Structure formats: structure tokens, C-alpha cells
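User: Please fill in residues for this 327-position structure.
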């Protein structure tokens, strides 16, 4: 028996309420992308083995799964493809949930994505990675009730939060003709680890009026634009979120090359642009394959002036993780 999983990655557009004055915090919107992917296969074996590409995270994830499930079963895992780490594409969540999904299937465990998220320790701040793994598409989650969180750990990243995944409020297929040109400049990676924890504590709470503006943009611009397939209004909303709330307070952490990349995309046809999570991944919204190819090449050439980078384009993933079982 061989089981293979293939996960999407994700763009994280914003954290909604990093103020918390009305009793909830976090909340987020984001999107599953078809590429790049985390691809892993497994076969039953007498002990845990991890083969293939850089595998430290995979081995750690498998160890977490086996420790918490308390099973004597083991497997040989082979890493086929990975999502770049610490660049804003949600690599850790997809690897952890991908390993959990794979092992639960190969060992016949009845564990859905939410149960796996609790087991693997994901979704404690943003639910985007959890729900794009399960469903794909555009996701809005409702954040966490402060009353169930440790008061000293209200504003923390998912990597250390012990809260369960937040409720999913809205999920919708994203138009396939709407593409994202994604640029990962060759600059220092986004905040992670202890630095990420410090940023949350230093920058929060954000002004409540910013939270109000974010909510209004999401409810009265982004969601209607998505349902009406109005790419112009959707792009305007995405760009506007970059100057509000948590994204605004952390702009001083944005690398100058990232800022230049965002402006370049907007100046060359993108409907909207932003940085995913702490970056340095930047994205530009464009319509149609031909225009996506053109903007992709232009951004790639532009980044050569600043040390280069990885530039590609992708459509949305509207189905979530793929699982293939071969007897």
C-alpha cells in the first residue's frame, strides 16, 4: 500500500482584528494556490524513515503524530516536493497537516482536518492554512474568543498558540482566470521563530478604527467583488488592506526590495498587490494566462537589479489537499 498527499500553498492577505476590544482577536482572509506544493508519499514499515528532499520538518511532524496518536504503527516517508520555508506561503502548516493527513490514511485513523490541526498544533492564530488544506479556495475565518485564551498570550503567532483553529465564516471558489504573480526576492526571510513572537507582542494591539476599516473593506468590497467576479474592486480592496491594522504596523519590517516589487506590479497592470504574511513573498493579482506570463517575466527581469529571486504565477486551488491511495 502506498499513499500520496499533495497540498496547496496559501497567500495570507491579512489579520483582521489585532485589537481585541470587543472580545475576539485574529480573524483572517487568504487563498489557496495551486503551486508550489508539498508532496509526500508513504508506505507502512517497521520503523519511521524519512527519505528525499530536506526532511527535518517532516520527521518532526511524523514524530509528533506518532507520539500523540500513541500507535505502534510506523511508515517510510518520501518527500517529493516542498514549499519554500519562512517566505509567507504557509509551508509549515501544509507540511504538518500533510504528514498528519498521510499518516492518518495509511494507518486507518478517522481524523479529519480540524482534529489533525489540534494534534499537529496549527491554526492557533490564523485558520487560513488549515482551511485551504481542507477545502481550498478563498477563506475568511472568525478569529478566537479572548475568553478561551491565556491573557498573556492573546497576540501570538500560530507557531506557539495553543488555541484551536478558529471557525470558518466564509469559503468560496476563486475564479480560475484570476491569477497571482508571485515573487520571492532573494532577500532575508520573513520574521519567524522568536522574532515573529516579538513582533506580535510589540505591535499589538492595533488601533480599533483600523480594525473597523479592515472589516468594512472585507464585507463591503472584497466579498461582493468576489461573488460578482469584479477583479478591479477585489484588487483595490487587497491593496487597501496593506495600509491598515497589523500590516500597517509591520511595514517597517518590509524589505525595500519587497516594496519596490509591489509598486512595480501595480505600475505594470496588477489589479492589486500585497505581501503574504511576513513575506518576503509578494503577489500581484492579474487576469488571464497571457497577462500573467507577461507580468511574471517583467517582474523576474526587474528583480535582477536587486539580486534576483523566484518568480512564478499560479491560479487558485479550489479543492484542497489531494490524497491518492495505491494498493
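Assistant: Residues filled in for all 327 positions:
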Amino acid at each position: 500500500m502506498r499513499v500520496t498527499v499533495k497540498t496547496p500553498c496559501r497567500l495570507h492577505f491579512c489579520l483582521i482584528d489585532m485589537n481585541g476590544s470587543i472580545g475576539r482577536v485574529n480573524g483572517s482572509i487568504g487563498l489557496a494556490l495551486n503551486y508550489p506544493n508539498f508532496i509526500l508519499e508513504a508506505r507502512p514499515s517497521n520503523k519511521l524513515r524519512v527519505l528525499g528532499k530536506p526532511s527535518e520538518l517532516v520527521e518532526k511532524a511524523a514524530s509528533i503524530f506518532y507520539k500523540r496518536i500513541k500507535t505502534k504503527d510506523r511508515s517510510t516517508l518520501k518527500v517529493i516536493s516542498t514549499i519554500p520555508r519562512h517566505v509567507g506561503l504557509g509551508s509549515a502548516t501544509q507540511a504538518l497537516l500533510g504528514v498528519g493527513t498521510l499518516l492518518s490514511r495509511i494507518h486507518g485513523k478517522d481524523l479529519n482536518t480540524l482534529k489533525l490541526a489540534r494534534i499537529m498544533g496549527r491554526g492557533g492564530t490564523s485558520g487560513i492554512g488549515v482551511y485551504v488544506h481542507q477545502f481550498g479556495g478563498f477563506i475568511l475565518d472568525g478569529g478566537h474568543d479572548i475568553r478561551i485564551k491565556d491573557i498573556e498570550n492573546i497576540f501570538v503567532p500560530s507557531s506557539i498558540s495553543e488555541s484551536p483553529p478558529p471557525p470558518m465564516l466564509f469559503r468560496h471558489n476563486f475564479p480560475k482566470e484570476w491569477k497571482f504573480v508571485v515573487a520571492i526576492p532573494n532577500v532575508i526571510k520573513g520574521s519567524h521563530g522568536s522574532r515573529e513572537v516579538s513582533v506580535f507582542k510589540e505591535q499589538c494591539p492595533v488601533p480599533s478604527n483600523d480594525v473597523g476599516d479592515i472589516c468594512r473593506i472585507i464585507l463591503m468590497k472584497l466579498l461582493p467583488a468576489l461573488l460578482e467576479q469584479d477583479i478591479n474592486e477585489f484588487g483595490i480592496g487587497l491593496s487597501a488592506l496593506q495600509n491598515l491594522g497589523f500590516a500597517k504596523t509591520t511595514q517597517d519590517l518590509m524589505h525595500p526590495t519587497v516594496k519596490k516589487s509591489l509598486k512595480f506590479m501595480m505600475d505594470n497592470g496588477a489589479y492589486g498587490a500585497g505581501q503574504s504574511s511576513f513575506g518576503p513573498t509578494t503577489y500581484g493579482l492579474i487576469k488571464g494566462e497571457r497577462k500573467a506570463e507577461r507580468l511574471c517575466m517583467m517582474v523576474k527581469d526587474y528583480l535582477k537589479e536587486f539580486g534576483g529571486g523566484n518568480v512564478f504565477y499560479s491560479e487558485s486551488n479550489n479543492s484542497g489537499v489531494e490524497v491518492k491511495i495505491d494498493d
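For context: The longest strand covers residues 24-45.
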